[in-house]
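hey so i finally got around to running the thing on that chain from the lab meeting. sorry it took forever, my laptop kept dying and i had to restart like 3 times. anyway pasting the input first so we r on the same page abt which one it is
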Amino acid sequence: MLAKISATWKLLLKLLGPEILFNSLKSIHSFPHSPSHLGLMHRHEHLLRKTTKNFKTAITILQSTLLLLLFVPLIKPAPPTQQDSRIIYDYGTDNFEDTIFSQDYEEKYLDGKNIKKKETVVIPDKKSLQLQKDESVTPLTPKKENDEMPTCLLCVCLSGSVYCEEVDIEAVPPLPKESAYLYARFNKIKKLTANDFADIPNLRRLDFTGNLIQDIEDGTFSKLSLLEELSLAENRLLKLPVLPPKLTLFNAKHNKIKSRGIKANAFKKLSNLSFLYLDHNALESVPLNLPESLRVIHLQFNNITSITDDTFCKANDTRYIRDRIEEIRLEGNPIILGKHPNSFICLKRLPIGSYI
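ok and heres what got predicted. didnt touch it at all, straight out
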């Protein structure tokens, strides 16, 4: 095979001459090739020009060039965006041949003795390109860090406060364990259970205003030893649950609570309770054993028809003064307050209501 190629080149040199062959080499540069192909062609052209005085050497180089040209169409060009950082051609230096030979040695060394090292460089590039392609086609879904994420996507979680207002939830969502304040107003919650707050011991405020709550399980608030404010206003409650001991504010206005739905000692042990809102319900009497700590009591617009001397004061102690109470509202009830003067003798201010 090599003998036939050599004979062919000798015939071409005799017929065309070296200059025409040089020009044919120049035309090859117009075809798109990879940097490695172009480097090899520049190498042979340079050596051919340098050794034109030695005709036999030129023929040998041209034979190898012909072999290269025959195989170039069969080789797939490298992608234009990737370049081999090891190949740097300096055409203007005298050490061009040394550079080429050193590159040949490195290529042979990498292809022969150090194949594993070469493969470890190429494979990550393919994977990274594939990952980039996958990311551009299909966006990654947000990864859940824990079970609390759905609540904080539906609601707003901000430094211990969870705002789930007007999102049409029908049950208390799972809360982050560090939650201290929950605002779940104007939703469709119908029931509160003991499991809703079992693992959230740091709650200080709960607001369920404007829901559809009809039932609250016993023990729902029993583990909330730090709870200070509880609002169950504008629901459908018929009775009150057992309340946590450290409450300072309890709001259950605009429900359907009757007097039989409030236990006799429901408020007795709430020594920190300052604000009690039970207006717009169906109470027939003022709740018993109201704590001394109360400052504001709203009982307006109920069905209260009677008041005793022990309701707010102590009938057996005429010196007793209830100095913390600032406001009592009883308007809108079917009772004439003027008929019960001794019921308010311990108060600094008379209740708001009808006296005639």
